[in-house]
Amino acid sequence: MSEKKHPAIDPALVRELAAILSDTGLSEIEVEHGELRLRIARTLMAAPAVHTQVMHAPAAPTSPTPAGPSAPAPVAAADPAKHPGMVPSPMVGTAYLSPEPGKPAFIKVGDTVTEGQTIMVVEAMKTFNPIPAPRAGKVIAILVADSQPVEFGEPLAIIE
Prior knowledge:
CATH 2.40.50.100; 2 domains; alpha+beta
């Protein structure tokens, strides 16, 4: 009967760590204190694909197979990470499409941008980091929603 008991895990601590994950956009966090070791993780696989299809191909869900001549639809259906015009997130954070709430978005699908033009901002640790267009071209897709948490390397937009 000499079973070694694990330290009690406070449910409030688990909720607090989960809130930190949500607020910062991190995918996992680990805390170690004495004998207590706690790791909280979440997966974010499906969300970007859903946003891509819903936001940038509204006609595709109504008639996905017959509508073949549309050029933007294949980009939304294909893996955006493999597109040569993909703009990746340089950090973990929260993407914002406009400079302030209520202001117009930096870019819209169909806009022509110049190299270095700010296309959105990513907030990380209370700092808003402008995301510049890596090349001049036409915005063919915006792959994130406003205020969406993003991971390092996650596709943000496609510029051709």
